[in-house]
Write a structure and sequence with these properties.
The structure is a single chain. The chain has 398 residues and is of the alpha+beta class. Among the domains are: 29-61, no CATH class; 64-104, no CATH class; 110-191 and 213-297, Band 7 domain (Tetrahydropterin Synthase, Chain A), CATH 3.30.479; 361-393. The protein contains ten helices and eight strands. It has helices at residues 26-41, 43-61, 138-143, 149-166, 170-175, 179-185, 219-237, 258-327, 329-346, 370-390, and strands spanning 64-67, 71-77, 80-85, 88-91, 98-104, 109-118, 124-135, 241-252. The strands form three sheets. A three-stranded antiparallel β-sheet has the order 3-2-5, with no helix packed on it. A three-stranded antiparallel β-sheet has the order 6-7-8. Strands 1-4 form a two-stranded antiparallel sheet. A hairpin with a 2-residue loop joins strand 2 (71-77) and strand 3 (80-85). The longest helix is centred in the last third of the chain and has 70 residues, at 258-327. The chain is elongated, with a radius of gyration of 57 Å. The termini are far apart. The relative contact order is 0.07.
Length: 398
């Protein structure tokens, strides 16, 4: 029989029923499920077996939990707190008897807000602050607060900021610096070892460097006070939170008076720059003055030592001469006279008279220049010619 013989298209060449164009209905699906369950073990027994298998699998899958190293697991038994699980693999009663809520305990969370508040001198100031915190107790974090922990933390942080800012005047809050900025603005004093001989001039009075004008409170101090107040408030709430950092990201006056405050800040910066220049100048001048004082003191000490040594040597020499004089007065007297004449003659020019008693002009030839020597030579030649004419051509001894 051909596969395409009349038969309403319900059979194919392999003698199988062909599907109609209609989709299977709900009754057909239920019939198929009953047929399959009946094959497993009967109509009622098969369904029970399947339900039991599902129950065993569900109990096995919900009887343990794995807590990550960065988390803590809070176990609730019938909705009531039972225990807290540390990181690792743990067994528990299957759900819904016991459920586990995992809370990240090492995650750094943050809350930011911007508020306007009054300072102690009744000025309005705008503060942008940021609070970073961690969960220290997962149970308290979940159940101690009536509302969301973030909202409670934001309100407590705002109260702490208002407490700290309200206790300071606006100028201190606006112009306060961090400790790093204040350390960079303060010049480092020159080390004592850089000045030669500084230890020898301890008695010399040298003015010290100009001290920096201390601030009422630095920004780091204000932030630390805010963190302490906020942590104390959270501890009273038993919130299970630890504040790790509080920072004032932007502290500014209201927009209506911002220009005036900018002028004030510019004047303060100019003042600070002038003070820094003065400190730098003092740091340059003071070491130089100390070095000069050390040099003058060292020269004075050297001169004193030299004079004392010379006087001591002269005294010792005089004592030796006195001893020799007492032993041989005539010999010592003559020797002293000869040494004195030798010293005098060695330091003065000598003139030898070989003219036989004639007058001779003393000429300081040792201090004369080249032109003077030439002029003196011509004068001497003319004088020699006149002498020869007067003497009848007889040569005379020089």
């Amino acid at each position: 029989m051909a596969w395409n013989e009349p038969g309403n298209g319900q059979r194919d060449p392999w003698n199988r029923n062909r599907q109609t164009g209609n989709k299977p209905g709900l009754d057909d699906m239920l019939k198929q499920l009953r047929n399959r369950f009946g094959k497993l073990g009967g109509s009622a027994g098969g369904i029970f077996t399947i339900l039991l298998a599902f129950l065993i699998v569900w109990v096995g899958m919900s009887s343990f939990t794995i807590v990550d190293a960065r988390q803590a697991g809070v176990v609730l038994r019938f909705g009531k707190y039972s225990r807290t699980l540390q990181p690792g693999f743990h067994f528990k009663l299957p759900s819904p008897v016991e459920t586990v809520t995992k809370v990240g305990t090492t995650e750094i969370r943050s809350v930011s807000d911007k508020v306007r508040m009054l300072t102690s001198d009744e000025n309005i100031i705008s503060v942008d602050f940021n609070v970073q915190y961690q969960v220290s107790d997962a149970r308290k974090f979940l159940f101690s607060l009536s509302g969301p922990p973030e909202d409670t933390l934001r309100q407590a942080a705002e109260a702490a900021v208002r407490t700290v800012v309200g206790a300071n005047v606006m100028d201190n809050v606006l112009t306060s610096q961090s400790e790093a900025e204040q350390a960079s603005a303060t010049p480092t004093p020159a080390p004592a070892s850089s000045v030669a001989g500084a230890s020898s001039v301890a008695a010399v009075a040298v003015p010290a460097a100009i001290p920096a004008t201390p601030k009422a409170q630095t920004r780091d101090t204000l932030q630390q006070q805010t963190r302490e107040i906020l942590q104390a408030t959270l501890d009273e709430y038993d919130a299970g939170l630890v504040v790790t950092d509080v920072s004032f990201q932007n502290v500014a006056p209201p927009q209506e008076v911002k220009d005036a405050f900018d002028d004030v800040n510019a004047a303060r910066e100019d003042k600070q720059g002038t003070e820094n220049n003065a400190r730098a100048y003092a740091s340059q001048v003071v070491p130089v003055a100390r070095g000069d004082a050390a040099r003058i003191s060292a020269e004075a000490q050297g001169y004193t030592a030299a004079r004392v040594a010379t006087a001591t040597g002269d005294a010792a020499r005089f004592n030796l001469i006195l001893k020799e004089y007492k032993a041989a007065p005539d010999v010592t007297r003559r020797r002293l006279w000869l040494e004195t004449v030798e010293d005098v003659m060695s330091n003065n020019p000598k003139v030898l008279d070989g003219s036989g008693g004639r007058n001779m002009i003393y000429l300081p030839l040792d201090r004369a220049t080249g032109k003077d020597i030439q002029g003196v030579g011509s004068v001497m030649q003319s004088a020699a010619g006149s002498d020869s004419s007067l003497g009848g051509g007889k040569e005379k001894q020089p």
